[in-house]
Amino acid sequence: MIEQLPVLLVVLPIVGGSIPLVASLVSDRAGWPVATLTLVGQAGLAGLLAWTVSASGTVSYAVGGFAAPYGIELVVDGLSGAVALLVAVVSLGVLAYARQAGPHSNAFYGLYLLLVAGLTGMTVTGDVFNLYVFLEITGLAAYGLVASGRDASAAVAALKYLIIGTVGASLYLLGVGYLLAATGTLNMADLASKLGEMAAYDSTLVLTAFGLMIGGLTVKVALFPLHTWQPDAYANAPDTVSAFISALVSTVSAYALARLLFSVFTVEFLAAVPVARWALVGLACVSIIAGSALAVSQDSVQRMLAYSSVSQFGLVIAGFAIATPLAVVGATVHLLGHAVMKGGLFAATGVIERKTGATTVNGYAGMGSRVPLSAFSFAVLSLAMVGVPPAVGFVGKWYIVLGAVNAENWPVVAVLLASTLLTLAYFARLVERLYFAEATIHSEETPAEAPVTDGSGQAVSFGMIAVVVVAAALAVALTAAVPAFEQVLRDTLLPILNQ
Amino acid sequence: MFELLNSHYNYFAVMLLLGIGLYMLIESQNLVKKVIGMNIFQTGIFLFFITLAFRAGGNPPIIKEGGGPYVSPLPHVLILTAIVVGVSLTAVALALIIRIYTEYGTLDEDKLKQLYYD
């Protein structure tokens, strides 16, 4: 049973995702219950798997019974177990939000579960071509979800996302071709052992493969010059979808990037080819600064949050690229913490917009007293994102900075510290407006200010607020879980990082 | 130079297809042509993989037929999957373009931008 868990985690949402489409023959509203049942099962299985992995080490499964280097292998270790659990839990949580916020069509929930399947597949796979397939499944489902908004601008955003995302995934595929030419294998573990032997780390072939694969994935992660699809997609999608994809899609892509870096190219490659490490660190640092600068200059809150993701993922990738155990633990903690915080923030913007019609930074003025609970959660999540100590955002950033200091990478340390200030710059502005500014939108204007745009009604359910509050509580409470998690991660990472 | 062209013409074709595809994707104002460019770009990658599988004097990889050396069957299988992915992407892209056309009444990127930001 345990060794079948990785493949069950992928099969369950695919099967569950096909049910709502068939159920359309009977009922238009069957999607939500089916998705909930499926994801409760998914969360249970992911929890069981994560627990097994933390207790007794890596679980692997040969798909179709074809043994590892030839067949497709699914591998779950401490790192992928944690990400798979995050995917299951966050997607279940967002469902509580979707119950009221919609969209309500059965097809939407089919796509939703397909996206969960794609994300989980990316997490558990141990094969670089299989990763490409799941990357595209994730992409296709995400394009469909972004376009599910009633507004036509959602279709424009989705097309932009599709074109840029496809180029990114295609570049990744081209890189897989170069690796195949260099080594003749696609299995990650096999690649790691063959790369140094069969093709020198600094050969043109391997360097090109590295550039194409990492470059392709940074499109999906949305690092600075390649982020252009992301603000439109997040801002124009329905609120449920914004919360869902902002929490998970880039996160899992960043995980895949880390997996490639450590389990395919390995730290020896980074040591042998310093220019590859510097290129990645440089890209990450540019992303941190540019993302923050763009976030400060935004008027729309959702676009500001989107640019904030560009900056925060720069931080995560910088942590991975430094590649000391401390920095990688920090990057992973920040990766998972960011998913909870950013998902919660997008959910909060949805609630605040529905209740008050406020969507811009100026519109948020004085909302602290109008929507106390959501505004408070928003403020807590914002401060957690900045990295105020008891919150999980602090722990991640602290470890990344410590890792950079240990690696004596001073320019990076400077950028990391500056990034915290820049994050404060755009979040403090909002928190200040929420509590200390005169309201610009008055309650009697609300009906006129908030036209029904996505046809899902303006009512806010208990579930929607609960999601926001739980995310805020988790952003603080997860800090308590970090020491235990760090132990599991170290058991996984130390062999990978050869320390 | 000519010798290289003669022995590696497939790779030149790959680079040409990748270049043409990417250029169309970026430069064309028409959304449908952008999608065509995306397809050409992907076709370049498919050709790259298939070229990888080639081996001089190789037989089809069916054990009965005359014996080795065989061409590598693996890239063919991979590309079969990638073609399916490409077709799905094209279908989704065209569906989105139809929706955009019914809403905005144009396929031109510049005009769409004006309408989009209004």
TrEMBL record, chain A:
It is a multi-pass membrane protein. The chain crosses the membrane at residues 6-27, 34-54, 74-95, 107-125, 131-149, 161-184, 204-229, 241-258, 278-297, 304-329, 373-400, 412-431, 462-485. One of its GO terms (molecular function) is NADH dehydrogenase (ubiquinone) activity. InterPro entries: CPA3_Na-H_Antiporter_D (IPR050586), NADH_UbQ_OxRdtase (IPR003918), ND/Mrp_TM (IPR001750). It is found in: Cell membrane. This is Putative monovalent cation/H+ antiporter subunit D/NADH dehydrogenase/oxidoreductase. Residues 126-423 form the NADH:quinone oxidoreductase/Mrp antiporter transmembrane domain. Pfam families: Proton_antipo_M. GO terms for cellular component: plasma membrane. One of its GO terms (biological process) is ATP synthesis coupled electron transport. Its main location: membrane. Keywords: Cell membrane, Membrane, Transmembrane, Transmembrane helix. The keyword NADP does not apply.
From TrEMBL, chain B:
It is found in: Membrane. Pfam families: Oxidored_q2. Keywords: Membrane, Transmembrane, Transmembrane helix. The chain crosses the membrane at residues 6-26, 38-57, 77-101. It comes from the Archaea. The keyword Kinase does not apply. It is a multi-pass membrane protein. Its main location: membrane. InterPro entries: CPA3_antiporter_subunitC, NUOK/Mnh_C1-like. GO terms for cellular component: membrane. This is Monovalent cation/H+ antiporter subunit C.
